[in-house]
């Protein structure tokens, strides 16, 4: 459910961008959609709402969601105030590379990686597996950030908006599958040990 919530602002960003030039009239009020600027305003609002809904569902503030909102608000706000889409296009790169730095810092300067701190209570994995998971997630953040810049500067704004939606879904699925492949052999081994002990 959390993953679905995280995609809603991105989907709305994509949908509103497609309405560029469309005019909506409600009573005496009229609004004309303004491409990436309207989409960015909706992204900020939807991300804020997503953080609040996640808080109500989970009962606590999810740090990643809060930091995502902070990044969206800063870069999206700069895009709206300065009327320059470069800021919102840079947001995914800055955010992902920031996460990569945090993951590396925990790996180097802490006894446990960030993933182990977050999931260690639910998963009992060997140290080497936690290290490989940390490297996998770090590599994902670096690659996602780099590809975002590549697309933003090499292709049209419209292509980048589509890429933002589809790559978010694609990279999340790939990361989920690779994480499951790394973890599942150890879960099966633990299940086998548990079954053996119950005889």
The stretches of 5 or more residues where confidence is low (pLDDT under 50) are: none
Number of strands: 2
Strand order of the largest sheet: 1-2
Helicity level, as a percent range?
over 70%
Largest sheet: 2 strands, antiparallel
Strand portion, in percent? under 5%
Estimated radius of gyration? 20 Å
If helices are DSSP runs of H or I spanning 4 or more residues, what is the number of helices? 7
Whole-number mean pLDDT = 89
Distance between the termini: 37 Å
Can you write the helix and strand succession as a string?
A: HEEHHHHHH
Descriptive notes:
The chain is mainly alpha-helical and 199 residues long. The protein folds into 2 domains: 1-83, no CATH class; 85-193. 81% of the residues lie in helices and 4% in strands. It has 7 helices and 2 strands, in the order H-E-E-H-H-H-H-H-H. It has a two-stranded antiparallel ribbon. Helix 2 (35-58) packs antiparallel against helix 3 (63-82) and helix 4 (86-109) runs antiparallel to helix 6. The longest helix has 42 residues, at 157-198. It is elongated, with a radius of gyration of 20 Å.
List the helices and strands and how they pair.
Elements: H1 2-18, E1 23-26, E2 29-32, H2 35-58, H3 63-82, H4 86-109, H5 114-119, H6 127-154, H7 157-198
Antiparallel strand pairs: 1-2
Helix pairs in contact: 1-2, 1-7, 2-3, 3-4, 4-6, 6-7
């Amino acid at each position: 459910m959390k993953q679905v919530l995280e995609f809603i602002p991105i989907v709305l960003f994509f949908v509103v961008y497609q309405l560029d030039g469309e005019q909506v009239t409600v009573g005496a009020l009229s609004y004309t959609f303004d491409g990436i600027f309207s989409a960015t305003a909706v992204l900020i609002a939807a991300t804020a709402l997503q953080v609040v809904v996640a808080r109500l569902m989970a009962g606590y503030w999810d740090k990643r969601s809060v930091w995502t909102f902070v990044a969206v608000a800063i870069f999206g706000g700069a895009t709206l105030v300065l009327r320059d889409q470069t800021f919102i296009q840079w947001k995914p790169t800055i955010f992902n590379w920031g996460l990569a730095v945090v993951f590396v810092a925990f790996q180097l300067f802490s006894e446990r990686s960030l993933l182990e701190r977050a999931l260690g209570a639910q998963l009992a994995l060997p140290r080497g597996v936690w290290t490989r998971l940390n490297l996998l997630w770090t590599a994902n953040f670096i690659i996602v950030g780099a590809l975002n810049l590549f697309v933003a500067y090499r292709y049209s704004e419209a292509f980048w908006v589509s890429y933002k939606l589809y790559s978010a879904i694609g990279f999340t699925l790939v990361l989920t599958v690779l994480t499951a492949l790394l973890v599942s052999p150890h879960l099966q081994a633990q299940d086998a040990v548990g079954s053996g002990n119950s005889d």
